[in-house]
Amino acid sequence: MGTIDEMYLENLDEWVNDENQIVTFKKLSLALKVHVNKAKQMLYSFVQHQRNNKDNDHLFVTYFVAGLSHPVVGVKSLKCMVVPEENIEAFKSTLSVVTSSHIYSVGRSKVKDDNKLYLADYDSIHTDSTTNTDIFKFSSIKYPKAKLRSDAEVESQKRYRTEPTTSKQVNGTSKQNGENGHISQKPKQNGENSNVSQKPAEKPQKKGGIAGMFANQAKKTKSPEKDPKEVKEEHSKDSKMNTKESSNNKGGVMAFFSKQTAKANEKPSEPVKKDKLVKSEPEDKQETIKKEPSPAKRQVPDKGKGKRSKSGQDSDDDSQKKRRRIKAVLIDSSSEEEMDYESPIPSPVREQSPAPESPVPKELEKESPEKDSPEKTTSTNIGERKRKRRRKLVPKTFMDDEGYMVTEKVWESESTDASETEPPPPKKPQEKLTKQQSPQKKKASPKKKSPPSAGSRKQAALTNFFKKK
Amino acid sequence: MTESGEIQNAYIGADIFCEFLEVAIHCILYTRELYPAGVFEKKKKFNVPVKICVHPDVLSYVTNTVDSIRLLLKENAVFKVTVVVVTPDHKPAERFVFEVAKPTQNIGNDKYLYRLEESLRGFLLKLSVTESLLKPLPEDCTWTVQVYTKESAAIAIEQKQHLKDFPWILADERETTMEDPKMIPLKAVNSDYFQMQLYAEESSIK
């Protein structure tokens, strides 16, 4: 035993003087595996030894003093303070009864604030609590009725703590037990919750937070356009969330899907993406994958419709439509002609204008005459030779499924050269486009009626040629 | 790791180092009593209380300094960062040198950066106990931050920083050379993201 007693002096000497550490009694008890009271005595004797025998006056010592204060308004309070050596007497005088007074720490540097003291033994105290049982083995604050929690209880606690709202309550109660508690809530003589026990609690809290964030977003971005069934399924699954990693992976996959559909239509895809991020079960993944392409498909016709409506709107808008058509017609013409009317529009416009036209013919036929009308008006407005793109009802003969030859009239776009300047065009440009559209519509209907007369096909073609305006 | 992984690591290392540097500068200001203790407020970093100066000019100065250092670090152009305490005669009285280098090894076992955080805490602790090792400072000292970097990077950063209205200038010789210095090693760390060494240099003339 004598050797152990001597060794601690050497250890302390090394730590304090050579390594310039601040040694608290807690740190010493953990390092030397002795009871805290013994550690306090060690520190005291070390200080005495240093000061008396070695003339080392550079030690800075702090004391822990606790006691009952003088009654203030008839109330006595228990005060605990860590004070530097100089202030110890002054503080003791403020107390009526001093219940405890012992050394807290020894170091070479002056301790101006508590940061240093807290930092000094932080690492040694906050080592893994499940394996390091020394801290309560050597502590003198004990509560005999407190029992160690079994592993099952710890697991249930962890799951309970995943919900962030209730975790605060749990932490609050654990703080009360903290002074006397055992492993699951790490005890500290100051009664604070240790960081280690909070670390596993923080992780599920954080995960709960992240998952909760997704759940909140899913609820917020719920749009009326989406299937109500899908949304309901999502919310019921929110509560069943378990593993977050799988949901993260699915989030990546879903995000990939949603990116592709996002271009088509943003609003429906966003809630789709966010709702799906929350999923955890694999069955749901397949369901969602099935559902994901279906909204995608739905969106394609939407896209077409959207474009068509836009083009319909543009037909009312003179200038834009005119410009696009003019440029399209211009570039199509192989002949060199004077282009002095419009500033050159970049070529992508030309590429775009054929593109919207191609899906359009597949759909409704109503709007096609409207399209043709501005085309014709613009071409006639200028009154010069240029290529025209027109839609014409053309009879087509082909083989049916059942093997019969079928002849059908089909609208086809056809580009022809403008033959000459016609007398009607110079008058018409001054009229409004809407007026011109109505005569066009009227002519369109006779157009439809004329083809059935198969006998006079050629003549119909020629007359159509002259009629168009 | 692939190149992009290395670059990512470098960025992460730069960010972590800059976070730590900001706190360390405040810690130095506090422990060396360069500003009165009243302007420092206790805040939390790396799970421990640290003292941060709340004066807006000081705060913005430190933040801008650290931001510029971050830019340089991302280009891997920083050798060391020094916080120099200068006497009223414009002579450096003491220096806290943070030497930074690229990581040598890639162990990858510090996934959640617990160990790195622990070592950075140790750095902060060491900084706060340095005053026992150093002689007291004369009155009315001022301080500055100097960065040792490559010339190309310095020119590049000058152009960038002019936009942010925070110009860096070439340090004077008299503020960089120390008379009769004594070196006190403090701490070193070698992690997956960066290597860092902290030591203090003290001039015998104070």
How does this model look, in words?
The complex is a heterodimer of chains A (469) and B (206). Chain A is an alpha+beta fold. Helix content of chain A is 58%, strand content 12%. Chain A has four domains: 2-125, Alpha-Beta Complex (50s Ribosomal Protein L17, Chain: A), CATH 3.90.1030.20; 141-220; 221-291, no CATH class; 302-467, no CATH class. Chain A contains 22 helices and six strands. In chain A, the strands form two sheets. Chain A has a four-stranded antiparallel β-sheet with strand order 1-4-2-3. Chain A has a two-stranded antiparallel ribbon with strand order 5-6. In chain B, the strands form two sheets. Chain B has a five-stranded antiparallel β-sheet. Chain B has a two-stranded antiparallel sheet with strand order 1-2. In chain B, helix 1 (3-31) runs antiparallel to helix 2 (56-74) and helix 1 packs parallel to helix 3. Chain B is globular and about 50 Å long. The termini of chain B are far apart. Chain A binds chain B through residues 20-22, 58, 107-110, 112-116, 118-120, 122-123, 195, and chain B through 37, 42, 47-51, 118, 121-122, 124-125, 128-133.
State the name of the first-level CATH class of chain B. Answer: Alpha Beta
Strands in their spatial order, largest beta sheet of chain A: 1-4-2-3
Q: Assign the structural class of chain A, choosing from mainly alpha, mainly beta, alpha/beta, alpha+beta, or little secondary structure.
A: alpha+beta
Describe the oligomeric state of these chains in a short phrase.
heterodimer
Helical content of chain A stands at 55-70%
Distinct helical segment count of chain B: 5
What is the terminal-to-terminal distance of chain A? 118 Å
Weakly predicted, low-confidence segments of chain A: 170-209, 220-252, 262-317, 334-384, 418-456
Q: What structural category arises from helix and sheet content of chain B?
A: alpha+beta
Radius of gyration of chain A: 44 Å
Q: How much β-strand is present in the residues of chain B?
A: 25-35%
Mean pLDDT of chain B: 87
CATH architecture of chain B: 2-Layer Sandwich
Tell me the total number of β-strands of chain B: 7
Elements of chain B, N to C (H/E): HEEHEEHEHHEE
Shape of chain A: rod-shaped
- Count of structural domains of chain A: 4
Question: Which sequence of SSEs, written as H and E, runs from N to C of chain A?
Answer: HEHHEEHEHHHHHHHHHHHHHHHEEHHH
Please summarize the sheet with the most strands of chain A: 4 strands, antiparallel
Return the average pLDDT of chain A rounded to an integer.
61
Q: Report the strand count of chain A.
A: 6
